[in-house]
Design a protein that fits this description.
Its main location: cytoplasm. It is found in: Cytoplasm. 44% of the residues lie in helices and 13% in strands. It has 356 residues and is α/β, with parallel strands linked by helices. α7 packs across α8. It is globular and about 70 Å long. It binds adenosine-5'-triphosphate and magnesium ion. Magnesium ion (MG) binds next to α3.
Length: 356
């Protein structure tokens, strides 16, 4: 019998996109988990894009079903908002098994992980979000659990300490990370499959926007869907957030339909330009040009100048600017490019960076 997946544990971790007090304007982009969940694909067939990844996962699932064995451990990596949590929740649903959810930062000691391991039923899934932030002690504790489905528990202290070996059910770990480079090699090697999620094409985002507008029962024109998609920085979560904003704007300032005209006015108000650059991206580039003469500048220094944590810059601002070709990463730091200067209509700095 197919069981409905049961979602347990501490749900979504705090999102990286909420830099809140740091001057990072997340007022509207703040991740609204409920909204995210409402629009999240429920089945693999509803997942738009990432075709190569999805096809490989289908094979993986098919083989698992035919052999009636638990799925091998799976690591998903890629920038925020591209669908790691989505895929992690779709897979157990496809197999009709249970899903437990936790995250690296909430596992401060092995005892925090133990209940998840002992609760894991045969073939069930344990999703560990932000797995790169799991402390070393927890990481060592999970090795035998992943490899041999057992844990070694130390009881008592000092001379009386003894280790008890406990057998676990065969389960599957799905790890998600925005920083696969921060994973230790032994942990990475325990994942049978590793999948990297990449940014989406505009047409895929158009499809996501259209589907989600339908889910939200909001009429949207094709060109408006395209305008939203191309400002979404290749990221479905951004597309969803922009769609929500356009929908609010259409309700408040127009007749509720999302048209090209509505979208343009809505984005002007948000200060998002045609490429999807936001105020903080422009501040980043301007700081690099004006304060650091075009670079090279270290990300820490940029973070201090902008009053934004350098992690946030690395995870959320830089990947898109790199992808646009607006900055380059050199061993000595970040350097602004001519394309960025042109896009922002800035004059080249007197010295430094690419202009020396
Ligand atoms: N392939 C997709 N097709 C349709 N919608 C998607 C897809 N991927 C993501 N989304 C939408 O984007 C939202 C964000 O995706 P998700 O939460 O899975 O990202 P994530 O990679 O886990 O991000 P983070 O690193 O911040 O946790 C989802 O709620 C879903 O609505
Ligand atoms: Mg996630």
């Amino acid at each position: 019998m197919v069981r409905e997946p049961v979602i347990k544990g501490d749900d979504e971790p705090e999102d990286e996109s909420s830099g809140g007090e740091s001057g990072w304007d997340s007022s509207f982009l703040a991740d609204d988990i409920e909204y995210d969940d409402a629009l999240r694909p429920q089945r693999l067939s509803e997942v738009v894009g990432q075709r190569a990844v999805v096809e490989r996962l289908e094979v993986f699932l098919d083989a698992t079903r035919k052999r009636n064995e638990p799925l091998g451990h799976l690591l998903l990596d890629g920038p925020p908002g591209l669908g790691k949590t989505t895929l992690a929740s779709v897979l157990p649903r496809e197999l009709g098994t249970e899903l437990q959810i936790t995250s690296g930062p909430s596992l401060s000691a092995p005892k925090d992980l133990l209940p998840f391991l002992t609760n894991a039923s045969h073939g069930s899934f344990l999703f560990i979000d932000e797995i790169h932030r799991m402390p070393a002690t927890v990481e060592e504790f999970i090795y035998p659990a992943m490899e041999d489905f057992r844990v070694d528990i130390t009881l008592g202290e000092g001379l009386n300490a003894r280790t008890v070996n406990m057998k676990l059910q065969k389960f599957t770990v799905i790890g998600a990370t925005t920083r696969s480079g921060m994973l230790t090699a032994p942990l990475r090697d325990r994942f049978v499959r590793r999948e990297h999620l990449d940014f989406y094409e505009d047409q895929e985002l158009v499809e996501i926007v259209r589907r989600n507008a339908r889910k939200l029962r909001t009429p949207i024109t094709d060109d408006a869907a395209f305008e939203i998609a191309r400002r979404s920085r290749g990221t479905p979560r951004k597309a969803n957030n922009l769609l929500r904003w356009a929908r609010d704007f259409a309700t408040s300032k127009a007749d509720g339909n999302i048209t090209n005209e509505v979208v343009k006015r809505a984005f002007e108000m948000l200060e998002i330009d045609q490429l999807g650059l936001e105020r903080q991206d422009r501040r980043y580039l301007e700081a690099l040009v004006k304060t650091f003469s075009g670079g090279p500048a270290g990300v820490q220094a940029l973070g201090h100048t902008l009053n934004i944590p350098s992690d946030t810059l690395e995870d959320e601002v830089e990947p898109f600017l790199l992808r646009c070709g607006f900055i380059q990463r050199s061993p000595r730091g970040r350097v602004v490019t001519m394309a960025a200067m042109e896009h922002l209509n800035l004059n080249p700095p007197a010295g430094g960076g690419l202009f020396r």
